[in-house]
Design brief:
Blueprint lengths: L2 H11 L14 H12 L5 H6 L3 H4 L5 H10 L4 H11 L7 H12 L10 H18 L2 H11 L7 H10 L4 H9 L10
Helix pairs in contact: 1-2, 7-8, 7-9, 8-9, 9-11
């Protein structure tokens, strides 16, 4: 089993907190296990995340928070690029992972994420393509927040969002928060 998945499994079995913003424990047991992995002779966090079977992630409760914490431990843009590029070919099989990375990392931008501008754009393009194909409400909402007014430059995506804005409260709210006018969307 992949070492990251072993740590996630250990967190589940030992009831470790994996709340990214826990003010009680700071998620220290989980974070320390990730840091120990980085300091071990076996492999490091970047290598382990790059080779994780993203299909296997869904087996674990709170895998989404575990991913957020693990990616938050990566400080170098080149390391984040390595991980995120390794996951790009597999996004179709884990839409939730695409959504998490888009909303919590890509949305912040290359300066704050850290990642290169190239990888940021690769993820945007991949998530737009995925959203057009599967029409996942959460992914579409994340694209509204990530792209802002730039979303209007992606005509097919914009048309899709216009089409579902009447039926989706989440999309309506995202559009309102980003101050995006849509023909059929009523404030």
């Amino acid at each position: 089993m992949n070492q990251f998945l072993e740590i996630v499994d250990m967190a589940f079995k030992n009831h470790w907190c994996v709340n990214p913003f826990c003010t009680t424990c700071g998620t220290m047991d989980f974070r320390n296990a990730l840091r120990d992995l980085n300091n071990s002779d076996r492999s490091n966090l970047v290598e382990t995340l790059s080779t994780v079977d993203i299909h296997e992630l869904n087996r674990f409760p709170n895998w989404d928070n575990a991913i957020r914490i693990a990616l938050g431990e990566i400080k170098k843009p080149s390391d984040m690029d390595t991980v995120l590029r390794s996951w790009l070919p597999h996004l179709d099989s884990n839409v939730a992972l695409a959504d998490i990375v888009l909303f919590y990392f890509v949305r912040r931008g290359a300066l704050f994420a850290p990642m290169s501008i190239e990888v940021l754009y690769e993820w945007r393009v991949a998530c737009i393509s995925l959203a057009l194909k599967i029409k996942d409400e959460s992914l579409l909402e994340s694209l509204v927040y990530t792209l802002g007014s730039e979303i209007q430059n992606y005509k097919d995506l914009w048309y899709l969002i216009e089409g579902i804005s009447d039926k989706s409260q989440r999309i309506k709210l995202a559009l309102q928060r980003r101050d995006l006018p849509i023909n059929n969307y009523k404030a």
